[in-house]
Design brief:
Blueprint: H1 10-35, H2 46-100, H3 108-131, E1 133-134, E2 137-138, E3 147-150, E4 160-163, H4 185-238, H5 242-268
Antiparallel strand pairs: 1-2, 3-4
Helix pairs in contact: 1-5, 2-3, 2-4
């Protein structure tokens, strides 16, 4: 169709359509460059968006699971520190029991002194066992049993750890006041066996807690690698190629300028009809 018409300016229409397409592409490039994302909504790529959301959800789950595992490590470290103190107290109690069992060299005064210290140490064990807690959760009073630690992004049994910590009070260890004493040589001889059995029990609890700590640290390290890989995979899907998009943006800027100029020229074409009048 000739451009020397008034009612329908095909050249102007074509120039406008091209300019509108360039504007759309330029707006998209600006959006991507300003956000750093090639896929922000499902309209930018339905399949990529759905997959990205799944990866993001799993990555966030891994990040929280890492925090959970690290919290678990802090919890067992708290218990372990207190158990170390109890073990140290029991070692002293063992020395006192062995000392008092030496009846040939001990008089009533020395036995009473040993018993006084022995009783104080029994109270110390109960104080530690009764007050050691993580937040408001008691750890060594015998109530911390079958507690679940979520160390994965999904509700799978394999991603949950069940933790129990045995009671470490004097009564639970078999060395409570009224049960063992060192006020006589014969009582001290019985106390030796009881205290040494308690030391073995605390060692067993500590070994269990230490194994859990090592497991949690290994899980956290593995989750950290997994979370990094998931983040990288998600970035591959949604992050914009800045160099490529910047090149496109520069091209669109030139096309916008030339398109605007050509639309202005096309709109002037019908005025040539005046020259025929």
């Amino acid at each position: 169709m000739s451009s020397l018409v008034v009612n329908t300016n095909l050249s102007a229409i074509n120039a406008y359509n091209n300019l509108n397409a360039t504007d759309t592409q330029m707006s998209k490039a600006i959006q991507q460059l300003s956000s750093g994302l090639a896929v922000q909504t499902a309209a930018d790529g339905p399949a990529a968006y759905v997959q990205s959301q799944a990866l993001q959800s799993q990555s966030n789950g891994y990040q929280q699971a890492i925090s959970n595992a690290q919290d678990g490590v802090s919890l067992v470290q708290t218990a372990s520190g207190a158990l170390n103190q109890i073990s140290s107290i029991l070692q002293t109690m063992n020395q006192l029991a062995i000392s008092s069992a030496n009846g040939a060299t001990n008089d009533s005064t020395s036995l009473a002194a040993n018993q006084q210290e022995f009783s104080a140490l029994q109270s110390d064990i109960n104080q530690i066992a009764g007050t050691t807690s993580y937040g408001t959760t008691n750890l060594l009073d015998g109530t911390f049993s079958s507690q679940s630690l979520q160390v994965g992004a999904f509700n799978f049994t394999s991603q949950q750890i069940t933790l129990s910590i045995g009671g470490a009070s004097a009564g639970a260890l078999g060395v409570a006041a009224g049960t063992v004493s060192v006020d006589t040589a014969s009582h001290a001889q019985s106390a030796i066996s009881a205290v040494q059995s308690a030391i073995a029990s605390v060692d067993s609890i500590e070994a269990s807690v230490g194994a859990i700590q090592n497991e949690l640290q290994a899980i956290a390290a593995n989750l950290t690698v997994g979370q990094q890989n998931l983040s990288a995979a998600n970035a591959q899907l949604v992050d914009v190629n800045m160099a490529q998009t910047m090149t496109t943006f520069s091209t669109d800027q030139i096309l916008m300028q030339t398109g605007t100029a050509m639309l202005a020229q096309a709109q002037q074409a019908p005025s040539l009809v005046e020259k025929l009048i």
